[in-house]
Design a protein that fits this description.
Length: 154
């Protein structure tokens, strides 16, 4: 798997969220897919529960629709700092990839705080057109405490 293409995929992911182009976010995933936000503690204990969970692109699109139309949350934005991806191996036509991240949350009043750090655990494969897609993205946050509702995808 070409690391430069993985960097581009992660950059597109961060741009979609950071620039509030949420409708572009599900398009980065295969269908079906798995998207889950969890904690390092849950992973270490073998606990599968997640803070956010979707197992299809349709569920990701529903998440975006809820963000736009139904959820009420304090105005906020994210800024992702994404590290370099490490390809850990290949399995069933997909690359197992691990990528560190840091997310700063910017509130409506301009206050900035460190929101989350962690690592993306991905399975990345190409679609029929040769485009890289996330078949699976498990967002493993280093800490398990969030001071607000996790409304926006990490």
């Amino acid at each position: 798997m070409d690391v430069a293409r993985l960097v581009e995929l992660n950059a597109a992911y961060a741009r979609a969220i950071d620039n509030e182009k949420f409708e572009q976010w599900p398009e980065l995933f295969a269908d079906p897919c798995l998207y889950k936000v969890t904690t390092a503690e849950n992973v270490a204990k073998g606990m599968e529960a997640g803070i956010m969970y979707a197992d299809s692109r349709g569920m990701l699109q529903d998440r975006v629709s809820a963000l736009r139309k139904a959820n009420i949350y304090e105005r906020q934005r994210y800024r992702h700092i994404v590290g370099l991806p490490a390809v850990l191996g290949h399995e069933n036509g997909a690359a197992n990839v691990e990528t560190p991240f840091l997310i700063v949350r910017i509130m409506g009043d301009g206050t900035m705080t460190l929101f989350a750090t962690g690592c993306y655990h991905d399975k990345v494969a190409t679609d029929g057109a040769g485009t890289l897609k996330f078949a699976e993205r498990i967002v493993v946050c280093d800490g398990g405490r969030f001071d607000t509702l996790v409304a926006i995808p990490l």
